[in-house]
Amino acid sequence: MAQPFDTPRMTEADYLAWAPTQARAHEYVEGRLYAMQEDVETEPFERVDPRAMVTRNLADALNAHLRGTECKAHMGDMRVYVPAAAAYLYPDVVVSCAGRTRPGRTPTAEPFVIADVPSPGAGSVYPGVRFAHYRRLPSLREYMLIDARRHCVDLYRRGTDGLWGLRPWEQGDDVSLASLDLRLPAAALFAGLP
């Protein structure tokens, strides 16, 4: 997730020229910059960062399932461009398919599945705002909002009518990604966490 970046508003063209010169990735929404959050320090009693663990588990499970297909899961390194909102965002996990995959800071405007695992105290580009932008992408079929601490998932799925529906998955439930024909056991998603 991103942290607010205290600068004057920037045009989209200026952002696109400026972003590649930066050591740290920045999101861009409606003329404002948000510096991507560095790895979060875990509490002294925690041995792993729950957010990082869930993100890695999800990307690994997706890539294992997608092996041999034209699709691939990217973890935090794919910038998503939302033309309708002039927004550039870095989701935690993005599934993109052949011909549309451009890893690194080159944006894709055609993600198939997006997942965010918000950090406690995340920056100003909150999940609801992010999803409001993501759902404007015609290619997007499913959006996962994962709570690493509570071990639950809110899965938003685009219906055949174009409307989005919410399917909450509680602790212990398997998560079904219909667009990828994947049933992901909760135990795999939250493996390594207490």
TrEMBL record:
Cite the GO molecular-function annotations of the record: endonuclease activity
Q: Which UniProt keywords apply?
A: Endonuclease, Hydrolase, Nuclease
Q: Which Pfam families match?
A: Uma2
Residue stretches making up the Putative restriction endonuclease domain: 14-180
Q: Which Gene3D superfamilies match?
A: tt1808, chain A (3.90.1570.10)
Check the record and name the CDD domains matching this protein. DUF820-like (cd06260)
Q: What protein name is recorded for this chain?
A: Uma2 family endonuclease
